[in-house]
Design brief:
Elements (H helix, E strand, L loop, with lengths): L2 E5 L5 E6 L2 H4 L5 H14 L59 H17 L3 E4 L9 H10 L6 E4 L5 H8 L4 E4 L6 H6 L2 E5 H11 L1
Parallel strand pairs: 1-3, 3-6, 4-5, 4-6
Antiparallel strand pairs: 1-2
Helix pairs in contact: 2-3, 4-5
């Protein structure tokens, strides 16, 4: 079973914690990670972009000039795709980008992502994350003490409005709770900072 050091918000060591091997020590399945991240990004697409075809653009009912004798190419409408203000040929239309991933694959992907963070020493466990007030400075100091100089994902056991609001002002920092975790965010952020109580919830959910 993998072991990690537990820190406080000031960066001081508070002991060690044994992590579940099934969740944080699983084999990293890269093909599954790829398919789940791809599905996540596709599902974020609204699919609402739309263009008008020549049949939908207003106007163009009259033939611009007679068929023969002008020396110009024959034209039937000023709303053909080759005309300025004409319709769009083969343009995008509203569609669904939804991709379904079954639960077993999602679980394997989550275990792989969490295990990858442990393997790369990018997971930091904090005994408790709380500010007690709206104070961005406290979160900044915690990140600095923990060596999180790049993008960081802070996972709380439950929503704490003080921490969420304080962290929202910091570029490259996001907060989450175990129920809103996703593979894309875990892989996207360089540091995965988890409250000790949140680790237990994650192990219960994904073991």
């Amino acid at each position: 079973m993998p072991n990690v050091t537990v820190f406080d918000m000031a960066g001081n060591k508070q002991g060690e914690m044994e992590l579940s091997a099934a969740v944080f020590g699983a084999e990293i399945n890269e093909p599954v990670l790829h398919s789940v991240v791809r599905a996540y990004l596709l599902n974020q697409r609204q699919g609402t972009q739309s263009t008008k075809t020549r049949a939908e653009v207003s106007g163009g009912g009259k033939k611009p000039w007679r068929q023969k004798g002008t020396g110009r190419a024959r034209q039937g409408s000023t709303r053909s795709p080759q005309w300025v203000h004409g319709g769009i040929a083969f343009g995008p239309k509203p569609r669904s980008w939804k991709v379904s991933i079954n639960k077993k694959v999602k679980r394997i992907a989550m275990q792989s992502a969490l295990s990858a963070k442990v393997a790369e020493n990018e997971l930091v466990v904090v005994d408790s994350i709380a500010t007690g007030e709206f104070k961005t400075k406290k979160i900044v100091e915690m990140l600095k003490a923990l060596g999180a100089n790049k993008k960081a994902l802070i996972v709380l056991p439950e929503v704490d409005k003080f921490v969420v609001k304080s962290a929202s002002n910091i570029e490259g920092v996001k907060t989450a709770i175990p129920g809103t975790l996703n593979v894309y965010d875990i892989l996207k952020y360089d540091m995965f900072i988890v409250a000790k109580d949140a680790v237990k919830v994650i192990e219960e959910v994904y073991a």
